[in-house]
Design a protein that fits this description.
By secondary structure, the protein is α/β, with parallel strands linked by helices. A 5-stranded parallel β-sheet has the order 2-3-4-1-5, with helices on one face. Strand 3, helix 4 and strand 4 form a beta-alpha-beta unit. The chain is globular. The mean pLDDT is 91.
Length: 148
């Protein structure tokens, strides 16, 4: 089974693999806090009735019925800045683990369980910080360049 997290060198890496898919771009330079991240996610994914918490984000990402696209690529750039203003490192760990778990959960949804099956792919722009965070949390990832 392939990892749920991919690392890219640039947005150009995404085009060959996900050119026709919905790419939800989150700018890490504009999402320094969890609140900013939640606001950006609510906006880019057009999440209805969002409560701006990790649980609400998890619930929304495990639903996504309002999006027509079957495959959603969550692309986070400027990962050196992404959620860097939160003092508690456990918060960033929680976000990474939730994103990984949600992408994994969608892999196991049976077509018979829902008419609206999705695939979520998490892509982080490469940085030493994001690699260290993923390794610390023991979250498997793969470089897009290594997929070919």
């Amino acid at each position: 089974m392939s990892p749920n997290i991919l690392i890219s060198q640039s947005e150009a890496d995404l085009k060959p693999l996900f050119g026709s898919d919905f790419i939800a771009h989150i700018d890490g330079a504009k999402t320094l806090s969890l609140r900013q991240f939640y606001e950006a996610m609510a906006h880019v994914l057009e999440i209805p009735d969002f409560g701006f918490s990790l649980d609400d984000l998890s619930d929304s990402l495990n639903d996504l019925h309002w999006l027509e696209d079957e495959r959603i690529v969550l692309y986070i750039t400027d990962t050196n800045s992404f959620i860097s203003k939160e003092r508690d490192p456990a918060k960033m760990a929680s976000v990474l683990n939730m994103l990984d778990a949600t992408a994994e959960d969608w892999k196991w949804v049976d077509d018979e369980e829902t008419d609206d099956k999705k695939e979520i792919i998490i892509v982080f722009e490469d940085s030493e910080r994001i690699q260290k965070l993923l390794q610390k949390e023991q979250i498997d990832y793969k470089r897009i360049a290594d997929l070919n």
